[in-house]
Amino acid sequence: MFSCRQAARLLSESYDRKLAFWERMRLRFHLVICRFCLGFARDMRRLEAAVRTYSQQIDSDTASPQATLQPEARERILRAMESERR
Amino acid sequence: MEDASPPQKDKVNPAEWLQKHGDYLFRYALSRLRDPEAAEEVVQETFVAGLRAIDQYSGRGAERGWLLGILKRKIIDQFRRRSRMSAVSISESGDDWVSGLFDSTGHWKTDPRFLGTQPSESLEREEFWAAVRDCIGKLPQRQADVFVLRELDGAESEEICKEIDISTSNLWVLLHRARLQLAKCLQGRWKNEKAG
Q1: Could you give the domains of chain B?
Q2: pTM, two decimal places
Q3: CA distance A44 to B172
Q4: Measured between alpha carbons, how far is B24 from A60 in angstroms, rounded to an integer?
Q5: Testing the interface with B: which of A30, A64, A81, A84 to mutate, by most B Cβ within 10 A?
Q6: Which residues from B are below 8 Å from A13, CB to CB?
Q7: pLDDT tens digit string along A33-71?
Q8: Handedness of CA B194, B180, B133, A19 (dihedral sign)
């Protein structure tokens, strides 16, 4: 019997590799009959989409919180650069 | 012609570089490494390496992108170092935790939905990112590292395996556990937060 536990595993792997045809079929069939897994799959898809948006925001430097380098770190980095220049 | 030549080592003003790109690089590194000290370290390595390789840098406009390219390499190095230090067996540890979510027949013990009925827009708000960040921070380090590489950087499985030297099946197990734990964590944090 194909369980929720196996379905969750396949669902996760579907984001990392191309599932085999029979794996896709099993997963799809399970989602038709299992309300919990269907809900989980939906939330997972929303999370994945949200994380992707988030990563683009960080890349374009609009993400919060606006963490900044501490003054001590700044000084350390500056010193390291100065000594490299010499 | 002279103006277009790449800047030389002695023409770069370190303070200006740091001022212009320091916080950006730091934020980027922090989002990946989730550890301020490690982030400071890679930013420093990046600036020093950038200064050293300044002769190879061409074109003024892409200065930040060029530094970011160096930073990304340094971040991967940091991941690799961490991965070597925590070379625990992947197959056994963590399996108990996953088992706890399911009953003996492999069915969910409780409803696994973790985002509630929130409209998608709410997932774009800062509170949600804060919750996700927090939950990623609670993952075991190796799980968090592969999750960040895969999801934030969009790295391919093969790439990650090569970089941090694990098998693909181990990677998939780690990612699966990371997603389950993230879901569980968000279920607690996000849903409660919205309800309260």
Answers
A1: 9-85 (1.10.1740.10), 95-195 (1.10.10.10)
A2: 0.82
A3: 16
A4: 9
A5: A81
A6: 172, 175-176
A7: 999 999 999 999 999 988 888 887 766 655 545 788 999
A8: negative
